[in-house]
Amino acid sequence: MFLVVIRACLQNLKIIFYNMRTFQKNHLWVKTVFFFVKRHFLVMPESTA
């Protein structure tokens, strides 16, 4: 189960980094991505505990 979560996160990071090269100048988009990533990692430890 945990490996599936890691694999999904890695795939999302690939997409995020690919899009960051495309939308490098879109600061609002980058802020939104970091907000969702931060929220995801803040929620994840609760579900695994």
Q: What does this protein look like?
A:
The chain has helices spanning 2-22, 27-48. With 49 residues, the protein is mainly α. The relative contact order is 0.11. The chain has one domain (2-48). It contains two helices and no strands.
Helix-strand layout with pairing:
Layout: H1 2-22, H2 27-48
How would you briefly describe this protein structure?
The chain is an all-alpha fold and 49 residues long. Helix content is 88%, strand content 0%.
Search tags:
flat; 0% strand; 88% helix; 2 helices; 49 residues; mainly alpha
**Structural category:** mainly alpha
Helix content estimate: over 70%
| Total number of distinct structural domains | 1
- State the assembly state of the protein chains: single chain
- In this structure, how is the largest beta sheet organized? none
Rounded mean pLDDT score: 76
User: What string gives the helices and strands in order?
Assistant: HH
Cα distance, first to last residue?
13 Å
| Number of distinct beta strands | 0
Give the count of helical stretches.
2
Percentage of residues in strands: under 5%
- From the spread of the alpha carbons, the general shape counts as flat
Calculate Rg over CA atoms.
12 Å
Low-confidence segments, ≥5 residues, pLDDT <50? none
